[in-house]
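ok so I'm stuck.
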Amino acid sequence: MCSPAILVFPSKDSSVMPSRGACNPRKESKPTISLRIPRPILEEIDGLVRRTRMRSRTEFIERAVETYVDELKEARIVVAKPWTDKGARVAILRYLKGRSATYVTDIAEALGMDFELAFRVVSSLSKEGKVIG
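replied:
not stuck anymore, here's the structure
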């Protein structure tokens, strides 16, 4: 954010001069990075820059990165671990102890389990009468 312009008058010491361009938003200090992008994606970006009338590729990429970072900050990231059917079955039954009800997706997220595996195991447990679902 820019502060209001401050006029500084030179004193008898002529080395004190008013600063120029102190509130130019383009002068914002940002690190420079290198980025490799496949040519077809770069061509797509160039077309979008023209269509959206953005100033540059840099502006486009900054906005895209900011949007993605904001999206990931709000997302729940689940890392699926490798499970055998037997291990998943034991883990799900252990997870369900003391819980009156829960969603299969909550089980999968809590245990870091692939959703398909969780649904398959819960379906099997339901058929055996171990869970009601």
